Amino acid sequence: MLSRRHLVAASGAVLLAPAFSHRVFAQTAIPELQTMRSTAKSWLWAAEDYASSAGFFEKARVKVVSNASNRGTNIAALAGSGVDVVLGDPGEAMRGKGSGMAIKTFIQTVNKYASNVVIKKSVLERLGVNEASPVERKIAAMKGLRLGTTGPGAAPDALFRWLAVSGGMNPNTDMRLVTIQGGGPGMLAGLQQDVIDGFCLSSPTSDLAVQTRDCAYLFNMALNPPPYFQNYLYICASTSEATLRNADKREALVRYSHGISMALKSINSEQAKLKEWADKWFEGLPPEIAQVSFDINSKIFFNDPTPQPTLFANNVDFINTVNKTMSADLIPASLTFEAQFDTAVAREGVARG
Question: What is the pTM for the complete model shown?
Answer without folding.
Answer: 0.84
